Amino acid sequence: MLLQHSPFMLNYASKGFRLMNAVHFHDLSTLTHAPSGRVKELADDVIPALGSVSVLENRTGLVMLPYTDSAQGTRFHLGEVLVAEAWVRLENGVEGYAAVVGRDLLQAVAIALLDAALRADIATERIQEFIHTQQTEQQQTDDELLRQVEATRIEMETF
């Protein structure tokens, strides 16, 4: 996971947000990888507790994907990635931001709302429970994929 150099972190910082700690970043990353329908349902359930919400930004755009050459260590841009981003402000002034790969603007708004809720300490227990469940499911999916990849590994003798 790219913490310091991801387009998400750079854009997040450019919005005037304080840089988040690694746990908060990991939580938001988990939300971006969670099934969008479930994230939207959670956000719908949390919205009544948030009060008035202003959507400051909700758009799609292209961001450059940085990569480091493993042989020489040279950084370069691998290409462009389409993202949807959202920036919201709650009536108490707390703001939330999200950027997701693709063009799902509703998913971006949902995650931005959940980000703001976490920052404002609203429905934190419910959101954290959802995040923990998603982290477990995502880890199981990753482990299964790695087992499948490992099963294709072959060993060759060299003379």
> What are the segments in which pLDDT stays under 50 over at least 5 consecutive residues?
1-10
**Biggest sheet layout:** 3 strands, antiparallel
Q: Which H/E pattern describes the elements? A: HHHEEEHH
Structural class: alpha+beta
The number of distinct β-strands equals: 3
Count of discrete domains: 1
The rough form would be described as globular
Rounded mean pLDDT score: 87
**Order of strands across the biggest sheet?**
1-2-3
- Assembly context of the chains: single chain
Quick summary:
With 159 residues, the protein is α+β, with helices and mostly antiparallel strands. The protein has helices spanning 7-14, 22-33, 36-50, 105-119, 124-151; strands spanning 53-68, 75-90, 95-101.
Write up what this structure looks like.
The longest helix is centred in the C-terminal third of the chain and has 28 residues. It contains five helices and three strands. The protein has one domain. The N terminus is likely disordered. Helix 2 crosses helix 5 and helix 3 packs across helix 4. By secondary structure, it is an alpha+beta fold. Helix content is 49%, strand content 25%. It starts with 6 loop residues before the first helix and ends in an 8-residue tail after the last helix. Strand 2 and strand 3 form a beta hairpin. A three-stranded antiparallel β-sheet has the order 1-2-3. It is globular and about 70 Å long.
